[in-house]
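Newbie here. two chains, one complex. Structure please?
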Amino acid sequence: MGAYLIRRLLINIGVFWVISVAIFALTRATPGDPVAMMVPPEQLNSGSAAYIEARRAELGLDQPVVVQYLRWAGSALTGDLGFSMVSGRPVTELLLERLGPTIELMGVGMLCSILIAFPLGIIAAVRRNTVVDYIATFFSLGVVAFPVFFIALVAIYLFTLQFPILPSSGITDPSNPTLGNTIRHLILPALILGVGNSGRLMRYVRSSLLSELGSDYVRTARAKGASPTRAVIHGLRNSLIPVITILASDLSHLVAGAVVIEQIFAWPGMGRLAVTAVGQNDYSVIIGFALVGAVMVLLSNLLADILYTVVDPRVRLS
Amino acid sequence: MRQSSPFVELAGFARGIAPTGRMRRLTRFGLGLCLALVLAVTACTGPATETGGPGTGGGSQAAGGGTVNIYLYQEPAGIFGPLAPASGPDNQVNSLIFEGLLAADPDFKLQPVLAESFEVSEDARTFTFKLRPGLKWNDGEPLTSADVLFTYNAAANPKTKSAAAGLFASVVGAKEVAEGKAETVSGFSAPDDQTFVVKTTKPNYGLLAQIGLTYILPEHVLGDVPAEELYDNEYFKKPTVTSGPFKFVEYKTSQYVHVVANPEASPAPKLKEIYLKPMSSDVATAELGNGGLDVATVSPLDLETLEGFDHLEVQEKLGAGFIRIGLNQSRDYFKDKRVRQAFLYAVNRADLVDQVLKGKAVVQNSDFYTPNAPQDLNDYAYDPAKAKQLLTEAGWDFDRKIDLMWIPGQRDRDASTTIVQSQLKEIGVDVELRQVQASEITKIYSDKDFDMVLYGGGNYALDGSNVSVITGCDNWYPAGGNINYFCDPELDKIMKEANATVDDAKRAELYEQAARISNEQADLFWLYSPYGLWVVNKRLKGFEAPGSQEVPFWNPAAWSVAEN
């Protein structure tokens, strides 16, 4: 297990390096640069050309891409991801500041999706081909089919405009940041993020549990007098194995979903930071965000591997 | 032997399990937990809106003060003050906390702010500003002409990374500073504590509008910082020492900018505090409706939704810029003015304004701010037959394919490109639409690699001389913003003459002449000048819509919140 983890970590570092080169190359391959975007064409004046040139030189954008990468990678190794080319603030500071709100949103969102998907998936499997199953299936296909931003906009219309019981934007009320206010601001975005992801998850729980319920050991358990509930719990444990893979890969879905949700609900997370940075071609922030995303996906895959051994003792990591 | 299928097996299974109801409870628990959370917390924490429900006074305001929430259409870059490149949301924050010698009022007229009065010499080369007596920074220090001198020297010096340095080019000694031969601009002087004087190398009345609005910085805070390090000074990220009616508290990135009343300001602001919040326009519409925002700009489409709310009122304000299509006149086929006129005749711009902007715009017919331009300009009313005739006369090659580039993403502009494309097609001009990124556009301009470009912005209301930036023969990109590569020596001559004229009436007359030439030459393919649509909660009094969405606010000290 220990050797396995070390090997996986080393491979991940290699993957991570390849990702960093790819992201760096991609940002530099986009046409134009952040400095060019700072000066709108209708505001050009006789000093603009000199200004743009000076700022590019200062940010090192006039250097060959390889030199730019080596410089960046050199300081990145020491934990310094450079400065935002727009606001001048350190990228690590910007990312750390946003990490909290994003994890809060993703964590509660994931919890909501589990709390919805598992009970729904189980009951749909157990009461297969009944009205309950059809309703659950309809729900899951519905949330998969409707884009999350649409659900969010409908929810905003309903719960903040027609029946104004919830706030529609921000992480808290800045003039009155009580715990209650903070939780109220979390409800809509987290719930919608959770609902949006629960559809897929519910389908997997249902089909995975169905195949377990049809297997011999469940029948044997029933034959030996185990109560139906107990038998389902038996099956459920084994059905978790594929579901864990889905949960881990859901993490990347959550990151993607959070980008949209954060944008709509003015949530000060990393997704919003990334969208703004892309709009401004703020290279260093885009790269920083992409690297954090890469780390999260790599780590969640590793986590899934480890969790396999926990739920299924037959699996050995070697 | 009985061989039952898993299905039969399961059906029995399900029957067996149903009476226990446990699974059902489990489902209810999951769904219920999330919903219960919603209800419980909502019940515990009272009304949902943050500064009071629609039209109410709200709970979080102090007596005689009040909290106001304002929408920002983009996230501020976060570098405030006069040195950073122009950015709409940052500038709106600036307009609450900083003050310049002058400011533009909602009618785009220059008004003295820190200055008590200003005077322009007969030759339009000497500008004298008298400061109001008793001015103070919000830390109690006196604000004098030394602060003004310090600020103007910093703003004119490219070493400070001042994005506006080029605007000072006509000031005596600015060239020497730009070339590194001098530290300070000799054309700026402060003969006494209350007086600040600017001298220029050539007549330039428009300089007032170009540099008179520069936000003044405190010398006692920044005076010791070397020019090279000034821009990166923490002050510009957190400018707490300013002179405006409000005092900067913090910028929580992606959340809000918080400013509070400055007790030293005179007149004292009536509000207690303001939050400026960047968010998407959809949410802003909802927040206007539920009272979460007091002020926001909206699109003509959202306006219909919001007009149904009794607690909201709409203020319309014609913008200072306009949406136009630049025609690359470095290419021979756009050099004939009949071609440019034909394009204007070919597109039903009045209909475009009605359909796409719900009538919330004015058709533009010259480079000048429409209310300042002569009323009898040729309006190039829709006439495809005439357009075709003009094109034929000009010898247009009907097999030619031309491109129209623009940065997609704004509904009215996206729709306009399609309409222009289809209506030009009707007169036999084949247009290919070309979407580009904002970041690549300056390179395309440098390469002159386009036929037509749709873009907007500019401020041509404050002073007619700004039009030179987009028409002047010596302002061809990259020397200036003339990306049409248009040049008309006669227009240039009148523009220069107007800019050297101090008498208001004479100057206005010269700019009218210039507008007629522009109208005749059709140097740009003008489309429309949109109205800024500001939706304001009626509880907020004294707010005057400043123009389009990116325009700085006017006189925020006068804003107040009505008590019920």
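Moderator note: DSSP finds twelve helices and no strands in chain A. The CA atoms of residues 59 and 292 of chain A lie 23 Å apart. Thread marked as resolved.
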